[in-house]
Amino acid sequence: MRSNQSLHFILLIGILLTSSASLVAQTAEMLRHFDYDRKAPLGIKEIGLEHRGAVAIHDITYTSPKGGTTLPCAIASSFSTKRWPSLRRA
Predict the structure, then answer these.
(1) Quick one: the chain helix, strand, coil %, rounded to 5?
(2) Residue 89's pLDDT is what?
(3) In this predicted structure, what is the pLDDT of residue 90?
(4) What is d(CA 80, CA 90) in angstroms, rounded to the nearest whole number?
(5) pTM, whole model, 2 decimals?
(6) What percent of the chain is predicted at pLDDT more than 70?
(7) Confidence band (pLDDT; 50, 70, 90) for 2?
(8) Dihedral, CA atoms, 7, 13, 19, 21, nearest 10 degrees?
(9) How many domains does the chain contain in total?
(10) Residue 73 is part of which domain span?
(11) CA distance 33 to 11
């Protein structure tokens, strides 16, 4: 029984070490996908608000950073003490 637990522990450590290496290995090319101009205006406008039980759904629009078009979006937020907002692009 003891050797079985040791084997499981060693396998767990091996899995954690191999999976963590792939999470850290990010190339500059992959990181460029997240580049943006922090000073660019977002142009956010709330166009509607709907309450559904303990959830508020905000219908908003924002300006696309790739061409200036306006994009619709919905943000759902909870009224509970734990706030877990959700974002859905229409």
Answers:
(1) 35, 35, 35
(2) 57
(3) 53
(4) 25
(5) 0.50
(6) 72
(7) low
(8) -140
(9) 1
(10) 2-89
(11) 34
**31-59 tens-digit pLDDT:** 887 787 888 888 899 999 999 887 888 99
d(CA 74, CA 87): 6
13: exposed, middle or buried (Cβ count in 10 Å: 0-12, 13-18, 19+): exposed
pLDDT in the model for residue 59: 92
Mean pLDDT on 69-89: 73
3-state secondary structure 52-87: ECCEEEEEEEEECCCCCCEEEEEEEEECCCCCCCEE
Sheet holding 70-78, edge to edge: 45-52, 55-63, 70-78, 86-89
CA dihedral 49, 74, 33, 18 (to 10 degrees): 110
